[in-house]
Design a protein that fits this description.
This protein has 96 residues and is an alpha+beta fold. It has two domains: 35 residues; 48 residues, no CATH class. Helix content is 31%, strand content 32%. It is built from one helix and four strands. The protein has a four-stranded antiparallel sheet with strand order 1-2-3-4, with no helix packed on it. Strand 2 and strand 3 form a beta hairpin. The radius of gyration is 27 Å and the shape is rod-shaped. The N and C termini lie far apart (85 Å). The mean pLDDT is 85.
């Protein structure tokens, strides 16, 4: 009977050690706000004066930005992987 008691105590200690490892790992991941942001995959989208962003849409490996302004509408398509411009469409005319 003593060996069962020892086995139960040993398994309980293993469980406590496992929970401690999980808690320490979570605290380290949450608390590490010092991580460097990968700026290689950032791109800037320039809005013209008076423009406003109407809609964004994801399509596979691309992101689409729909702008409307006093000169008409504009759609810009960029790659998600590196931010490179795929295409830009300018739409002129009465939008109402």
């Amino acid at each position: 009977m003593a060996w069962i008691k020892g086995l139960v105590i040993g398994m309980g200690l293993l469980l406590l050690a496992g929970f401690a490892v999980i808690v320490v790992t979570l605290i380290n991941r949450i608390g590490s706000s010092d991580r460097q942001v990968d700026t290689a995959n950032q791109a800037e989208i320039t809005m013209k004066v008076g423009e406003r962003l109407i809609q964004t849409s994801l399509d596979g490996a691309n992101i689409l930005f729909h702008f409307e302004g006093p000169d008409g509408a504009r759609v810009v398509v960029r790659k998600l992987s590196n931010g490179a411009k795929v295409s830009e469409f300018n739409i002129h005319g009465d939008l109402k």
